[in-house]
Amino acid sequence: MTAQPASLGRRDLFRLGFGLVAATGLAGCASNGGSSGGGTPIGPNSPKVAAAERARQIAGARKTSVKLAAVQSEVDLGGITASTWSYGELPGKEIRIRRGDLLNVELRNELPQPTSIHWHGLALRNDMDGVPGLTQDEIPAGQSFTYEFTAPDPGTYWFHPHSGVQLDRGLYAPLIVEDPEDGGNYDTELVIVLDDWLDGLGRTPDAVFDELRANGMPGMDHGAMPGMPAMPKSDLLGGDAGDVIYPHVLANGKVWKAPQTFATKPGQRIRLRLINAGADTAFRVGVPGVPMTVTHADGFPVMPVELDVVLLGMGERLDCVVTVPDRTVPVLALAEGRGQFTQVLLSTGVAASTDSEALATELAKLVVPEMNALRATDSVALPLREPDVTHDLVLEGPGDKYSWTINGKAYDPADGLPIRSGQVVRLRMRNKSKMFHPMHVHGHTFQVRANGKIGPRRDTAIVLPGRELIVDFDADNPGQWLTHCHNVYHGEAGMMAVLSYVE
Ligand SMILES: [Cu+2]
């Protein structure tokens, strides 16, 4: 019943075979990673991947089929029309399934470039992870590809291409996996997707990336010139807050002056599912005067904590429950270090008497707690154990031609960090650059170790400049998995590595 991608085959096997040869040659001198550790990489077509998928399947699972097209289209950002690439609307239409369900998505590529879909945060079968050149062939323009996989864990997820810098166009949408057993202490829910926007307003992400490459570093022809906007800076993020200037930031596809309005009533408890789909922007989010009870980080439950403001790096999600007051209030999302914001209005029918710009200024002054200090609930926390294998990920950049590296190397799919099924794997991420990096691991949800304590379970976590972050995960999902910075420009410029299951 499992779908085998039609386009995978000899070419894929050849590539993995080549990787093995290359790795064997290096084995004698590699001290930490950089080789296959004497084993054979477990590729996306391995029977072990199919076996892991069978183990995920549960009785009574439903199958949800979705047809999706990636298209060139115009979108209305709220009085501003942008010509972009999208899944038909902005954000793309949400997909909502239940835990254990089989999701079948046929993607038709109507773009002028090859594309792919990565199902961000899901511990899914490796051949459906959507990384061209690693887990599948790219989907050429004019062709289709069908993704089919079991979604094992409930939570707030999303999907986007893993092709070039396409993520910085309009190609993103929420994927919500419900838990039949999750009654939830709330009345209704609202998904809010945040984004930084430049596409189709005189520039494209591809052109921006070429500029960065040509200049060698960000801001060479922006921040240094009088009258041009300064490059983003943030004390909260420990230095540089972004490499790209964006004319707009969006919440559910809209600028702050034309916000989405969510009809509600006083006393209603709303579960906000916040998703940062930005390419280069962290967002701080708050509802002025209304505390938020944070319940989940990247889909996994945390010990509930009441906060006035939260921070989301690129790729991260937070679920927060708010109780609607007697008046209309905005959910404000501030682009950290940029002086820009956007919002969604929680409308009680009574016009807001407050000025969102003034409220945003106040929100910018609040102290933002350390998100990596959230604590996973006992039901999902991974116990503190000695790891079986530790890999250092030294994060550096920008180097020559805007290169961003892990362990001094730009991304090479054939040069994986070896791990083995059943191991407790530790990643020690060390940020030696002047910019924060939201580091994402595919196919797994790791346990953040916050100063030796148990932090949140997450799939993406910010590593601040000059700091180290330790995360552990159980190697229970065989295949070839990316770990990378979710700044799409950093990732595309090399800041990606492969966690390579070997046998
Ligand atoms: Cu980065």
TrEMBL record:
Pfam family, one: Cu-oxidase
Record PROSITE patterns: MULTICOPPER_OXIDASE2
Keyword terms: Capsid protein, Cell cycle, Cell division, Copper, Metal-binding, Oxidoreductase, Virion
Molecular function per GO: copper ion binding; oxidoreductase activity
Highest taxon in the source lineage: Bacteria
Domain Plastocyanin-like residue range list: 82-181, 248-326, 395-499
Biological processes per GO annotation: cell division
Record keyword Repressor present: no
Protein name, per record: Multicopper oxidase with three cupredoxin domains (Includes cell division protein FtsP and spore coat protein CotA)
Organism in which the protein naturally occurs: Lentzea albidocapillata
